[in-house]
Amino acid sequence: MRLILLGPPGAGKGTQAQRLVAKHGIVQLSTGDMLRAAVAAGTPVGLRAKTVMDRGELVPDDVVVAIIAERIDQPDAKRGFVLDGFPRTVPQAEALDRLLMERGLKLDAVIELKVDEGILLRRIEKRVAEMTARGETVRADDNPEVLKGRLAAYRTQTAPVVDYYAAKSLLRSVDGMASIDEVTAAIDRLSSSARVSGAGRAAKSSRRKGKSSKKAKRTNRTKRTAPKGGPRRKRSAGVKRSKNISAQRKNRTRRRLTRVR
Ligand code: AMP
């Protein structure tokens, strides 16, 4: 199964992605997590991404596309994956299409978690307060000021991705304001129906392919056996007939001659 979870920061994509991983044995590919790991490890990608991420802006497309291209080729991604936080721009979505096409892979569905931005801001503020109270480290970009920038980036750069997948009839929407369990149940329903219709599409297309290849075989056979000037079967039948006719004529003449004698 290959899914994309779309939705603004704080919509619950990460939580739902983890549940999909547990249920389907697929991997979660979160560009945010991968970038944070790169920042922590101090890799060249991490160094390039850090300041952009701290401002709540988007890392350049080529950086995240390269990360995803490498990640989907790993053996653990063969069973499927859920993309969380990618694609975030239309060029990223187009690059993903190319990556999948080159590998003969298809997406089953793109699920959008629809949320109310005001409630979202309050949710994040609450989460930050809880984490601080527990003495946990809060992400540098998880403060209300940066979050406003991240929401703005979502509206201008990621919202068009929703339209991109709607135009491809892959988009399904879920009420992201419902409880976590309700959202999980809704995603389950959508992803299994998408898989069924995807399987139907695949079967149909393979039947179509089967038909056309049979037709092609037939055409090839005709081409191979047909001598110049028309199909052999017709000519050989014609030759036989004409041989028969001349033989009949000869016999008739012979009989007539015998009678005369
Ligand atoms: P996230 O954890 O998905 O909210 O991502 C945290 C930050 O990582 C974002 O605010 C961006 O700066 C960066 N980031 C993650 N994914 C992408 C992406 N697909 N394209 C560009 N920047 C990204």
Task: Give structural notes.
By secondary structure, this protein is of the alpha/beta class. It has helices at 13-24, 31-41, 44-54, 61-71, 90-102, 117-133, 144-167, 180-225, 232-260; strands at residues 2-6, 27-30, 81-84, 109-114, 171-175. The chain has a five-stranded parallel β-sheet with strand order 2-3-1-4-5, with helices on both faces. The longest helix is centred in the last third of the chain and has 46 residues, at 180-225. The protein is elongated. The protein binds adenosine monophosphate. The site of adenosine monophosphate has 17 residues, from helix 2 and helix 3.
Write the layout of secondary structure elements.
Elements: E1 2-6, H1 13-24, E2 27-30, H2 31-41, H3 44-54, H4 61-71, E3 81-84, H5 90-102, E4 109-114, H6 117-133, H7 144-167, E5 171-175, H8 180-225, H9 232-260
Helix pairs in contact: 1-8, 2-3, 4-5, 6-7
Bound molecules: adenosine monophosphate.
Adenosine monophosphate binds near residues 35, 56 and 58.
Keywords:
261 residues; alpha/beta; Rossmann fold; elongated; binds adenosine monophosphate
Shape: elongated
| The CATH homologous superfamily of the domain at 2-115 and 158-209 | P-loop containing nucleotide triphosphate hydrolases
- Report the structural category: alpha/beta
What is the radius of gyration computed over CA atoms, rounded to a whole number of angstroms?
32 Å
Q: Helical segment tally? A: 9
Mean pLDDT across all amino acids: 82
Q: Stretches where pLDDT falls below 50 for ≥5 residues?
A: 211-242
List SSEs in N-to-C order. Answer: EHEHHHEHEHHEHH
Largest beta sheet: what is the strand line-up? 2-3-1-4-5
Can you tell me the CATH architecture of the domain at 2-115 and 158-209?
Answer: 3-Layer(aba) Sandwich
What small molecules does the structure contain? adenosine monophosphate
